[in-house]
Amino acid sequence: MQCLLREQPRSLALANRDYALVFHSVPQNKNSLSVCIAEFVSLSEKPLDGFRRISSRPIYGTLGLIELENSNFLCVITGASEVARIRDGERIFRITEVCFYSVNRPNWDHIRQEGDFLDNTADGYDSDIPGYDATKYASEPFSSLRKLLTNGTFYFSLDFDITSRLQLRTYHAYTDPQSDTMHEQFMWNEFMLRQLFKFRSHLNSDEKEVLDSCGFYTYVIRGFSGTEPFKLGMQNVRLSLISRLSSLRAGTRFLARGVDDDGNVANYVETETILDTPNYSVSFIQVRGSIPIFWEQEGVQMFGQKIDITRSFEATRAAFEKHFSDIIKEYGPVHIVNLLGTGSGERSLSDRLRQHIQYSPEKEQIHLTEFDYHSLIRSFEDANKIRPMLYGNVESFSFYSEKRDGEAITSQDGIFRTNCLDCLDRTNVIQNLISRMILENVMLHTRQNAGYDFWQLHSTLWANNGDALSHIYTGTGALKSSFTRKGKLSLTGALNDLSKSVGRMYINNFQDKGRQETIDLLLGRLIDQHPVILYDPIHEYVNHELKKRENEFSEQKNASIFVASYNLNGCNPTSELESWLFPDDNPMADIYVVGFQEIVQLTPQQVINADPAKRREWETCVKRLLNNRTKDGSKYVQLRSGQLVGTAMIVFVKESCLPSIKNVEGTVKKTGLGGVSGNKGAVAIRFDFEDTGICFITSHLAAGYTNYDERNHDYQTIANGLRFKRGRSIFNHDYVVWFGDFNYRISLTYEDTIYCIEQGKLENLFENDQLNNQMLTGDVFPFFSELPITFPPTYKFDIGTDTYDTSDKHRVPAWTDRILYRGELKPIAYNSAPLYFSDHRPVLASYEASIVKVDKAKKKRLFEELYLQRKVDVRDASNTSYTLIDISGSVTGKPNLIPYVPANGMDKIKKPSVDSRKWWFEDGLPARSIAAPPGIDYQLNPDRPVNPFTPSKEPDWVKPEKILNSEKKQEQHPAMSSQVTNPLQSLNSSHPSLIPQQSLSKPTKPSKPDHLAAPRMKPALPPRTNPSSSNSTSLRSSPSNIPPTPPPRKSTSTPQPDLLASSPEDSKLTWKPLV
């Protein structure tokens, strides 16, 4: 990859052998937004004529665009070293050199930014240029950013998405990082790449794929990465560590503490331990982060740690709960390992932490272990004292593992969150221990034995990790690193820790402010800082036109969908399902989706290891019924099925539909026991029907009459945690149908509910339905719909009867079984069926879906046609740059692009004037337009329309004789003023659209007559008709669209009537209707 420059008109380009990403400069004012025009083109179009190389080094990619001192800079990586190889074809590089090139100004072209001397001819640099001063480099606008980015703490990968953990990406994902799946929390150049992502979104799918494969943009994390190869038995394995520091509350030690209002904490790091072997890969995640309350700490403290908690318990709850809610959604249940001591400052933080956990709505998902590190650990062996406190969740959280082909074996279902005060030294020692406990479990499961050398490598990686994270947060290496490396304390290690402590004090008090400002600049957090706007004049227009002309390359057809759900209560398979699957004689659906809950009894044995035998029996029964029912000879085939303990789903489609279905995927999500157990959860299956994405989810949510909060939490866990390949969520589909046993109840007594059922007052029950009320508040299932419920509650019956629960518990009947949908599905039916095998009644729904089929060849031809046409419209093939007239205009507004002439002394021509930017002369006066009469004896015509754009036969200029003749004619018809009572009546009759219509019910002001109360506009008063008046000429010469000032009112004790409150006869004025 190369970086190239064209000076006139100024443009920068990133180019590989086949394609180029070009950034054109846009002339702009001081107060205007920073704008560049982006263009992604094939080199076959020869877009790089006039460009030259600006760097002799290879370019690894761009970090993005940033504005510094009114210049738009493109930042590119010019130096990197490989530091880790996670798996075959997955390399990680550390940034060692970056360069900043201005897109719109040549001021810094002479600055040599690279480490060694360059060829002046190739790169365009000349040290003999007048005014060149190498020492000036330190004062350039990008110097602090360049120093930060090259300090050895930033990493990137050209082979995979380094921002996401292994569990979120498949083994084959991919040689190209995908901007759709990156984790913005850990991407430090998100601000600089934001507009590039927006630019990418305007490209078509083929262009996106090509752009991704070019590797022009690069995701960067900050933290640590390292790999240690090792021979484990007869196998060559790799042990790797990746630490990703969050960018959401990034900063230095004493300037970033605690939590912010969005729930982001300081020094929040996700650390992933990865073991790669020839047969499988293992990954385990831990996080660290500051105590999630609002607290501060001064830099220089001679005696103890003075900690100031700045907000009350009540004012902190929202941020605390947001923090842990986000962690639980992302990882599952949380085990907090609090290493704070018993000193007054640290104890106050621990006390507040316990208080918040006690009152947290997520407290069932949070486990707290408190371990006073300083008082309990004197040697490496003492660290093992914490093992018994952690072992239970080490087993239950497990680890993620997958085969070489990407098939998942196990998944991690929980997270350890470790903290001390700074989340550095003590935290690193305990995280090292937890990582070791996990790897010991892996060795136990795989029946391998790791010797001393393996654990020594493991400790070395963790010690290096601690040093790197400490350098970022405090400016020095980690304390106790010798303890981590060698497993013992020594005099040399103690002296090193003392030296680091002194260094930290100096750096934190005298250098952190500048470091913090540079971090904020990189992340786009400074006041009034805006990203460089990338405008794509070609693709935005083409995409807009394609959307308007969609019918030219696509066609639609209808497909019928039948969805059925049944909580089986563990009953055996049966073929007596006709009343459920075939409720009427309508034609059979194209797609049948059948969901079951409690397909097996939820015993501990089944929860641990569910037996798929019963699901297979049900699959056979349903398939046989479908094929026996068909009358046109069509057959149903089983597309896919899935099971999570007792929750299962089976999808059948007509054989004739199979050629139109592709990309079939399935996944599951546990929600039972805080996400550890599969007794509750969801199964999802998705596929593409032609070019329409369809997703089905069946779920079994938490039980309990009053546990709707827990059911809401289960919904959030499923909605946010269910992921298909390439990071696709359930909401990335055109149609979504979510059904199952939701377990939401009716908030009435048993007696009241039975009475309403017997009286047929289902609307009263629905008003008290928990799901209905939770959806109304927006807590669950936003944008989902449900057909009106016309059937009685489906739970809970005495098995084999139509009688609701008569046991001692008297469970309140409820609509626990529901079917919801999202998208423009056309609902056909929604009902329950009379099956008596369970204590539930099954439910069913049918829909009609509009399936879109895109003719990709036609779309491509139309795209190319529009693309070429637009390219001719917006740019000249030779020397042209662009001036953006209205950047705020959207695609629908069709922003105007005009060529800007840059050379031959013509580049000083002012840009066109628009409403948001007027023309101004050098003296600061606005531009004026002068309209001169066609002759000396001409005056403005008072009879011309007020609106100059109104069609009229009246000329703009007339001679005075014509005006006098017009007035004489008016005097010869005095009846005009006597016959028209309301002076606006003639106007109302001739131009009714110009007069506001008065509402009949609106009261009028009592001080005015009714006939004058309605109109809001005042009539234009012509000059008085006295030809002999000395000032008549001047009055007639004034434009008629500027009403003359009425005569001043006499100052008398008797108030004079308002002109609008009197008739024309009283005022003795000549009234003339507006035209």
UniProtKB/TrEMBL annotation:
What's a GO cellular component annotated to this UniProt protein?
cytoplasm
Query: Entry's InterPro entries?
Result: Endo/exonu/phosph_ase_sf (IPR036691), IP5 (IPR046985), IPPc (IPR000300), SAC_dom (IPR002013)
What SMART domains would the database entry show?
IPPc
Principal place where this protein is found?
cytoplasm
Q: Record's superkingdom?
A: Eukaryota
Give the SAC domain ranges: 145-475
Where is the protein found, in the record's own terms? Answer: Cytoplasm
Region feature (Disordered): 933-1075
Q: Where is the composition biased (Low complexity)?
A: 1026-1040
Any idea which GO molecular function terms this record carries? calcium ion binding; inositol-1,2,4,5,6-pentakisphosphate 5-phosphatase activity; inositol-1,2,4,5-tetrakisphosphate 5-phosphatase activity; inositol-1,3,4,5-tetrakisphosphate 5-phosphatase activity; inositol-1,4,5-trisphosphate 5-phosphatase activity; inositol-2,4,5,6-tetrakisphosphate 5-phosphatase activity; inositol-2,4,5-triphosphate 5-phosphatase activity; inositol-4,5,6-triphosphate 5-phosphatase activity
Q: What are the recorded Gene Ontology BP terms?
A: phosphatidylinositol dephosphorylation; protein transport
Q: Which PROSITE patterns does the UniProt record give?
A: SAC
Q: Does the keyword Manganese apply?
A: no
Mark out the compositionally biased spans (Basic and acidic residues): 953-972
> What does the record list as coiled-coil region(s)?
none
EC no. given is 3.1.3.36
Which top EC class is given? hydrolase
Q: Which family does it belong to?
A: In the central section; belongs to the inositol 1,4,5-trisphosphate 5-phosphatase family. Belongs to the synaptojanin family.
- Protein name (record): phosphoinositide 5-phosphatase
Q: Which organism is it from?
A: Schizosaccharomyces cryophilus (strain OY26 / ATCC MYA-4695 / CBS 11777 / NBRC 106824 / NRRL Y48691) (Fission yeast)
Upper classification of the organism: Eukaryota, Fungi, Dikarya, Ascomycota, Taphrinomycotina
